[in-house]
């Protein structure tokens, strides 16, 4: 399985993620040329080689209106004009200094004539992305990522998403980062994206609303359900844009798995810390447990959340189970047990990815009568699965093929079998016998 793994031991920002992915391409120059033709008004991106702690990597520069933005150390809009809407402060204004070198720096070091009153709504940003010369897949991913940011700003400022407005320079900056990452991921065409737990930094960050703790409120909201930590590095290491990109694309946030690495990309920030200020992207093949050369399985870490229930109806349990499935649970099941006072009850289990743990906990407490939930971290061995198409007396049908531990299983979808049975006035058993699978 072809994967990209992001190592976020110094946080993550949109430009750093883009730079790390850019290094994984065989021809980064060609990609940059293509990106600069997609139609983001006023924006050009360039890359340059730079070193942190003696390690060479790539820094992506965002040029807006022919001017590279000079970044300062704080979030806030230094100008004091009042707006009913909220000021977006993501990505381009960080203690971390990831690279968005903003001349306005939220203190607006350059003249206010350029950006002072130019703000855009989420709907305007969505329209901008839809108007770019990019694939529908890239558009959908970019809009979904920006929606995470807009919802986080909405929650932080206590205003509906429709009332959240983004400063033009920050909006263009973030659109460039987000669209660039989405284009790169499409071009790399990997099967899965994973990331490490995210270092968010420590201390405080100054913005127009005052001095806020790290991670800033919008970033903290986006990172709900994602494993994060803080070390001794002072400053904001993870930006809202970086957090939203990882939240959208990463299937799990885990320690570096066993992979066969084919290439490593280094995406550099601008500031210098005691540790190398970069995101590393590993491109390679996922860890596999091999029984023989033609037989492979996969291993992953999952969480089992378990509670005992003795005071719920069967209908209520079924509703809770369906709700968890719809939220992304890997499996939900129950088994009869004997409980105290000789009551019959159920052991109710939800199996989920580590990144979905908090979501599943909240849903279990909301939709079941339990007052406590037990958590178990387990290793899951999965057979390698793929969809295949086979020829049958009833035409071509899709089947699931699974291999692993010397075993091969082929199973048609039940809905397909049921349809054939109805159309030919046969039983399920008769259809299966004629398919000879």
Brief account:
This protein has 437 residues and is of the alpha+beta class. It is 29% helix and 34% strand. The two termini are 26 Å apart.
Protein architecture, described:
With 437 residues, this protein is an alpha+beta fold. 29% of the residues lie in helices and 34% in strands. The protein is built from 11 helices and 24 strands. It has helices spanning 14-22, 28-35, 122-130, 136-157, 168-188, 217-222, 240-249, 314-326, 357-367, 414-424, 428-435; strands at 2-7, 43-52, 55-64, 67-68, 86-87, 119-121, 164-167, 192-195, 198-199, 201-202, 204-207, 210-213, 228-229, 235-236, 252-253, 260-268, 278-285, 289-292, 295-309, 331-338, 344-352, 374-392, 395-404, 407-412. The strands form 7 sheets. Strands 18, 19, 20, 21, 22, 23 and 24 form a 7-stranded antiparallel sheet that branches. A 5-stranded mixed sheet has the order 15-8-1-17-16. Helix 8 packs antiparallel against helix 9 (357-367). The longest helix has 22 residues, at 136-157. Residues 70-117 and 288-295 have low confidence and may be disordered.
- Strand fraction equals 25-35%
Low-confidence stretches: 70-117, 288-295
Helix-strand category: alpha+beta
Q: Please give the share of residues in helix.
A: 25-40%
Largest sheet, in brief, is: 7 strands, antiparallel
Spatial extent as radius of gyration? 25 Å
Measure the end-to-end span: 26 Å
Shape: globular
Number of helices: 11
**Mean pLDDT reading:** 82
Please report the total strand number as a whole number: 24
